[in-house]
Amino acid sequence: MKILFKIILLVILFNSLNLSNAIAQNKIKIGLLVPISGEFSEIGKSIVRSTLLATSKIDNPLIEIIPKDTESNPDITYERAKELQKIGVKIVIGPVFNKNLSRLEELSDITFLSLTNKIIDNPKNIISAGINAGSQLNTIAKFQKDNELEKTIFLIPDKNYKNEINKAIKKSKIKTFKIHFYDSEPTKLTKQIEKITRYPQRKQNVIDEISRLKKSDDPNKEKKIKILEKKDTIGKINFDSIIIADFDESLKSITTSLIYTDVSPKKIYFITLNQWFDQSLIKETVYQPIYYPSINKENFDMFATSYIKKFDEYPNQLSFLSYDLIGLVYYLIYKNDWNIDDKIFLKKNKFKGKVGIFEIKDKKINHILNFYKIENSNIKKIF
Questions:
Q1: Cα separation of 287 and 193, whole Å?
Q2: Domain 134-295+372-381: what homologous superfamily?
């Protein structure tokens, strides 16, 4: 039976640990591979700050965080990782982006806790710590079951992560009625959605019914025709829910296309993948209600409050994951009698962090996520 451990990020719990054995040990060196300069520097700097926040909570002078700037470049990432290897670092948080993993398998004595959520074809010494598709789909599967959804269609953009999503569907508990891949180019997208929703036929149904009524002897036909003239379509669609594997403006484009074809989120469940707590999505009431899995919002808000108080700016969401990973690594090293090796990640245990409950399995971190509903510009936790 798996034991549920709680990651010790709270000072109270850490203070209860007997650190006498650790004092005699060398410093606990944790590498950090993030973009501190360049296009994604704000993400990297936020991650660095969050690790400092985590270590201040732990309050153990033996912990040494060693950040290195990847500049979001695979070759530079590799060189910075070699620098960490030379000074004896065995565990690294990062890189952030999947493209930067390409050469890290050469550094087999280092375990990298990458913040990517992609799990296909990663090097053997990479543990994917992002919110992966499988974790999200299993959360959606619970919502499906709770609401007896039997005909869920899956809309997946024809982008580089479609294989990741498709593989996750096959391995998850999700039930899919049909899977559709779509082109995000606006003109093509609209035509594809029209076909999926049978929009031309449903629109023609209105024209045909008006024509039929005009020729009929129905005494109420004028009234019925006026009602029909206000309708865009007639006829049911053959699904009860939609999962949209898209984000940002592309997500809004496809929801707009669905609404254009007279498929309303007020009648059909609109479900998407982890949007964190995107304020632009919260403000757009036309797309609501919309549902999605994500991390523990209450804990994220508390983390954000602490972060803002210390650094006077709002944290990037990935920094919340890195905050948890510092606590995870510290706890596992402690449980391993302060020995640092890759074996600490092999034990099958569940952990409770700020993000939520998760476990390390098959070189990835699987999260048990919460599920949220956005409606009337408010976020409501479903479970």
A1: 16
A2: Response regulator (3.40.50.2300)
Domain ranges of the chain: 4-130+297-367, 134-295+372-381
| CA distances for 71 relative to 74, 84, 87, 100, 254, angstroms | 9, 16, 21, 10, 33
Looking at the predicted structure, is the pLDDT value of residue 19 above 80?
A: no
What is the residue whose two structure tokens read 């710590």?
129
What's the confidence (pLDDT) of residue 25?
Answer: 54
Q: Please give the single-letter amino acid code of residue 196.
A: I
pLDDT at 104 over 60: yes
Architecture of the 4-130+297-367 domain: 3-Layer(aba) Sandwich (3.40)
**Which segments of 183-264 are extended strands (E)?**
241-244
Tens of pLDDT, residue by residue over 175-229, are 999 999 999 998 899 999 999 999 999 999 999 999 999 999 999 999 999 999 9
Measured between alpha carbons, how far apart are the two ends of the chain, in Å? 24
Strand order in the sheet with 126-128: 4-6, 350-352, 357-361, 364-368, 126-128, 111-114, 91-93, 28-34, 63-69
In degrees and rounded to multiples of 5, residue 59 shows phi and psi of 60, 50
Do 4-130+297-367 and 134-295+372-381 agree at the fold level?
yes
